Amino acid sequence: MLSLLPKRHRRLLFVAIILVIAALLIPSEDKAVKASQRQNIDLSAKASNTQQATPIAAPNTSEPSLEKLQLTETPRVATPQVQENKTQPVAPAEAFADTPVAVTSAEQQEVKPEQSSEIAKTSDQPSPLTQAGSAADNSVKVSDAAELIAQLQQGKELNLGVRYPLQLTIEPQQAPEEPENFYTLKRQTVKSGDSMALIFSRVGLSARTLYDIDQLGGEARKLRTVHPGDTLDFYLDEQDRLMELHYPQSKFQTLIIERDEQDRFAVKVDTQELEVRTNFAQGTINSSFWNAGISAQLSQGQIMALAAIFGWDIDFALDIRKNDSFMVLFEEHFVDGQFAGNGDIIAAEFINQGDVFRAVRHKDGNYYTPEGRPMRKAFLRAPVNFKYISSNFNPRRLHPVTGRVRAHNGIDYAAKVGTPVQAAGDGRVTKSGYSKYNGNYIFIQHSSAYVTKYLHLHKRYVKTGQRVKQGKKIGTVGATGRVTGPHLHYEFLVHGVHKNPRTVKLPTSTPLKGKQKDIFMPIAKVRIKQLDNTKRVLLAMN
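User: That's the sequence. What structure does it adopt?
Assistant: Structure tokens below.
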């Protein structure tokens, strides 16, 4: 039959059939909205129907039609039983969201047309439960916070996906205030002739306070040896009591005396972290050793230290020649990246008239040759830093004052008045006094074989019977006694016989042995290699 219709008509017929089928299968928007409303109402009223279940007739086994289900499913929410039990607590709708709703034929038959209209009206108005659990709102007013907390205390459950206000009472916590201490700083600079008692008196502190500090012992005893130019910082409270005393001993170390909570003094040393670096200096002598050291940018202390290291083998007043040279490796100290001063010389080389002398510092603070022999001999070659020798050792010298030939049993070292004079070696002072011809003089006994004498001193700093160490300052150069100018007359006696201090063979000290030598030798090898590498680099640069 379709073949009898034209081709164009057949196409229109197929389109019409498809539209009819689609209209039958796809529900309209109104029906879909009503179905969703019925489902929401069923879920919200499910708790009431479940809790207030009443005996009903036996279900009809016959399956109800679709029209009956549409008419009876919605009115089932607002039954008289639900309205009567409205005051009873209702569980949240979300708690039963996954539970299937049971619909019985008996319930469907109990709903009357009059009730359906009332239910339709009430279903349009949202219930309080629906407002609290609405997923679209997802928030709760702050005014309902107290009510929600009360419900939670009664055992109610929170709805999933709903934000609840939380009432928090935060009390501001204040950290305990520490009392601020304001101290008055009084800085004192040590002057020549000052003592700690005099300094404390100037600050206004009692002798009792000084006594309590001195009784601390240990590091506190360093206050006994303050020097002119040192600074002392006194921190006093409102009652002018000493609370803190600061004594800077170096750029990175400070002695601190402080009063504790028990009103007692305590001592400590504040040491900043020190960074040690290695540097080098090299010089060639053209006019004098001192000028060469200054040209090499060595400090005065480093120049004196270098002369002390090699002073046992080299007479820096008479043995130095032009083109003599030296190389020094020394430490530099830094605090927080800032230069804080020079450290010790760790290795050095001195070439004098072609002879090479090398010294390496050991952990004990002494210097040794690379083979472990001590640089320090039993005696200093010269006990004073002099400008020149005004009179040599001469058994038949013509005396400049009397004009007679008289043996000059020592060496006269010309120097300025006040130049320090050192003990030539360890020993005991046998005489310290004054005479018409010798002026101020000191005699020192070194063991049973050696005696040294120091004449025409300006001042004496040791007493008879006192023991001294090599290098200790025992006096200063002067012009006392029968002299023509300031100088030090120095004599050296061996078993009571005068010897020339410049040429006498000096006894040596004990070399390193055993474990100490095993520790020193690797150190010396590294230091000597550093010297050699530095010399090669400087030679290549020139």
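The chain has a mean pLDDT of 77.
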